[in-house]
Design a protein that fits this description.
158 residues; 5 helices; single chain; mainly alpha
Length: 158
């Protein structure tokens, strides 16, 4: 169940950015959007975020191993697929794409000219949201794989 909780938490985190945070920032003054995103990116590095983001693939892999030791082959494969997908499609994407984009935005002095700010924000937001959507879809697929793996364990026990 810890696997389900951890992948569910990170899926929800990425999903919230899609359906509220970024849309709200896109709808506001781009100077405010840049400032707000800089603050949010700086604040996400915290001990509450760490377990869901960094430990999820480890928890999923450990759960896969436990399922393997219990000879639950289908669940072993599904937990392993969930761990691999999340690691490659969410954690590595974050580390190689989103974090460098966030670091670059952190270096931006917020322009006073709204048109300059709008160009900076639109360029950042469009690309950032594409990659966040990918992270969300991959995390969602990992969540479904995890749920199916648990279902199969429960079905085998019943």
């Amino acid at each position: 169940m810890l696997s389900l909780l951890s992948i569910g938490a990170i899926f929800g985190f990425f999903y919230a950015w899609i359906c509220s945070t970024m849309w709200g920032l896109d709808a506001t003054d781009p100077r405010i959007a840049i400032t707000a995103m800089q603050a949010m990116n700086a604040s996400v590095r915290n001990p509450v975020f760490f377990p869901a983001f960094f430990l999820t693939p480890i928890i999923l892999a450990a759960t896969s191993y436990i399922a393997f030791t219990q000879q639950r082959r289908r669940s072993t494969v599904l937990f392993g697929m969930a761990a691999s997908a999340y690691f490659v499609g969410a954690l590595l994407v974050t580390a190689t794409v989103n974090v460098p984009m966030n670091q670059a935005l952190a270096e931006v002095a917020v322009p006073t000219d709204i048109d300059v700010a709008r160009a900076i924000w639109q360029d950042y937001s469009r690309s950032w949201q594409f990659w966040n959507t990918l992270r969300t879809l991959v995390s969602g697929a990992s969540l479904l794989l995890t749920g199916l793996a648990i279902y199969l364990i429960e079905k085998d026990v019943a």
